[in-house]
Amino acid sequence: MSLPVLDAPSTSTVPTATRRVFDLAALLTLLAVALGSVVCATESGFECGNWPGCTASALLPSGTVTSFFYKNPWIEMTHRTSAILAGPLALVAGVLALRLRHVHPLVKVLPWVTVAGAFVAGYFGRLTVLGQPVPAWGGAFDLGSALTAMAAMVVATVALGRTSMRWTASRGSVLGWAGLALMVAMHLVSLFAAGKGSYTRCLSWPVWELVAADRAAGTAVQVVRVVLAVLALAAVAATVAVTWRQEPRWAATVAVLLGLVLLFGLVISLTHSDQLGVPFSLATVGLVWTQTQVAARTTFRRHAA
Questions:
Q1: Which of 121, 257, 295, 300 would staple 287 via disulfide (CB 3.0–4.6 Å)?
Q2: pLDDT digits (tens, 9 = 90+) for 124-137
């Protein structure tokens, strides 16, 4: 089943510079979300003390850095830099897209969704750094905005690169979007399930030893989170199986990242430690990003004549 779209020329009519800006904006949104997960996993979010800059004493070799992967202000500043750059670059992409003809409407709309998402995420990030209390719903709004910004820029970039193709509903695309939606829902629910200072508030999947530490947050929320995780796991695995021939490279990447998520979760559960929090969170972010790629690429497909 195909939805009506514009009949468009090939991507050769899209300036190379415009395609590069879209590519960079998509990569920067990935970097911003990934580094945000590292900031959370290493508890580095409060090491600068102000915003948007950082105190010189914190960044100097004689400062407060005692471990690279624990409370490191350089991780926080690198995250801020990527986040600050992602918004303006998406803005440039949005302006350039307005000058294009015969492209899918999403190419012109979604960069502005990324700009809005980056702005909201930056606002809540500033509140957190400055020590202002942010409730669970605020954290969910922050994370949801960041994930939406990342997904929007990916879809816009794929749509730009496949200008001559139609928006097509297929089994692969339906499974792709379902898996993505379930993962995002699971991550947002996690913020309501997390106990104070718990790793669960970071981008991750439910692990029994970590879930047990969050019991004070409410059993019902944890049940919802675990159910969403099981459904997401099934949808992502089904996406890989269905899209393997159509998008072999991206489907294989999703499969590898899903395997890493399961492996890190198993190790954390067996060792009763969250020392693998950084690679666990990075694999989780990468899985969301590549699942979005698969969903978008199986949606924009060349139609039969």
A1: 257
A2: 777 666 666 778 88
Q: Are 17 and 97 in contact (CB under 8 A)?
A: no
Q: Which residues contact 66 (CB under 8 A, 6 or more apart)?
A: none
Write out the two tokens for 63: 């400062």
Structural tokens at position 214: 């969050």
More confident of the two residues 261 and 216: 261
> Residue ranges per domain, the chain?
15-164, 168-305
CA distance 48 to 57: 9
What is the spatial distance between Cα 144 and Cα 79, in angstroms, rounded to a whole number?
17
b/e code 29-51 from CB counts within 10 Å (16+ = b): bbbbbbbbbbbbbbbbbebbeee
Tokens at 108, concatenated: 């012109």
Type of residue at 2: S
Q: Provide the terminal-to-terminal Cα distance of the chain, rounded to the nearest Å.
A: 14
Instruction: Please give the Cα distance from 288 to 151 (Å, whole number).
Output: 8
pTM: 0.87
